[in-house]
């Protein structure tokens, strides 16, 4: 989620690296949820901090990669592009926690993060 204003160049770079045609801000997410029939409560928003992203889990904590994936040049290229883009462009990025309720549902509703 975008927390601050971004340039058209920033949006073009997000599209180039990630294929993201739409990187919404808080109002944009609220519009998307409302258009889908949800009422929206924003529980929290936070900035993305590079130092948090750079923390690495202990090697034994998690194994999400297939054996040998980190030797694949295509995988390494994607990881390098992501790291470079985040280094240059993380400033306006953040995340939000939204509580979305679908109209007409009894007993609480459904939650969603964006």
Written account of the structure:
The chain is α+β, with helices and mostly antiparallel strands. The protein has one domain. The protein is built from four helices and three strands; from the N terminus they run H-H-E-H-H-E-E. Strands 1-2-3 form a three-stranded antiparallel β-sheet, covered by helices on one side. A hairpin with a 7-residue loop joins strand 2 and strand 3. The longest helix is centred in the C-terminal third of the chain and has 17 residues. The protein is globular. It starts with 7 loop residues before the first helix and ends with a strand. The model has no long low-confidence stretch (mean pLDDT 84).
Q: Secondary-structure element sequence?
A: HHEHHEE
Low-confidence stretches: none
Number of helices: 4
Overall number of structural domains = 1
Sheet-strand content, in percent, reads 15-25%
How many strand segments?
3
* Helix/sheet category: alpha+beta
Subunit arrangement of the protein: single chain
The percent of residues in helical segments reads 25-40%
Question: So what's the overall shape?
Answer: globular
Largest sheet: 3 strands, antiparallel
Straight-line distance between termini: 7 Å
Which radius of gyration do the C-alpha atoms yield?
17 Å
Mean of pLDDT: 84
**Strand order in space, largest sheet:** 1-2-3
